[in-house]
Design a protein that fits this description.
single chain, 102 residues, three-stranded antiparallel sheet, 4 helices, 47% helix
């Protein structure tokens, strides 16, 4: 029964939280194509997505404040702070644009 609820919630999800990829040196690649970004969550509404993003940002900032020099939490903070919520249909359109009409 729980599996059915999870499947149903994924079908209803219309928003995704995307995180940018990280390059080999730990830099965040915000200019990478959306297909390279990582889906970090699926949500029924934009509000739920933004709330989750805000909670993640708060958790990372708390981690930075607890880390004496910030070195351990800095890479995660960079990714989380640059993540973005996007409507699933919009993401699909961007990943698979319609061919130009003649």
């Amino acid at each position: 029964m729980a599996g059915l609820r999870v499947a149903a919630s994924l079908l209803l999800a219309t928003w995704v939280l995307l995180q940018p990829p990280v390059d080999g040196s730990g830099g965040v690649e915000t200019s990478a194509p959306l297909g390279a970004w990582v889906v970090n969550g699926r949500f029924a509404t934009a509000k739920a997505c933004e709330e989750n993003k805000s909670q993640s940002e708060a958790a990372v900032l708390y981690g930075l404040s607890r880390d004496a020099d910030g070195a351990d939490a800095a890479p995660a903070a960079a990714v989380v702070m640059r993540s973005k919520c996007i409507e699933l249909d919009d993401l699909k359109r961007r990943l698979n644009p319609a061919p130009p009409s003649e």
